[in-house]
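Quick log. Single chain, no ligands specified.
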Amino acid sequence: MKKILMITALIFSFTMISCAKEEGQKKRRGIDFDALKTELTLNEEQEKKFDAITADIQKAIEESRASSMGEDGKLNRVKFFADMETIYNKHAELAAEILDENQIDIYKDYMDKNQRKRPRYNDALLEQIKTELNLDENQFLTVNAANNAFETEFQNAHDIYHGNSDLAKEYWEKFDTQRRNAIESVLSEEQIEKFRELVKDVKHSTRR
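-> predicted structure:
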């Protein structure tokens, strides 16, 4: 009888742990729009419109996840997170139409803190690099190619470093060094100095 009770207790314990993990994974997946709504303190009309916008966005996210899944059952993280960036930008545009200025600031702050960023130089930084370094067409093609290669390599290594922030950082720094070396190989000394200054604050983020 005691053995049965112990086995039952163990099964229950493992089930609870498994459920907790699944629940944790659900909470970590994407933006918590309910929490965002609470921070925005929407009125009734705003909430109705916000919910409609969010429902469409969440549908788009699930469609992207499905289309980004390979035949091997693995997620194409490069494609998926590129889609996510576009989808969230669309949500921001639509939300801005129904929020006041203060709410827009709250929205932007929340998204900046909680949105999972693509592990690459973003479009704003790429444009800054191109402009301030006065890059020619071939140089900028190299910058883009190196940046794309960095994102692909880091995302493809996800299954190896997943759950280990130290290992993730190690991979990030390894691929970042390769990215910088590739870019600097086509720059002049003056351009290299400016480039290093522009990207000096680009570091590995644990929010992946």
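The chain has two domains: 33-114, 123-199.
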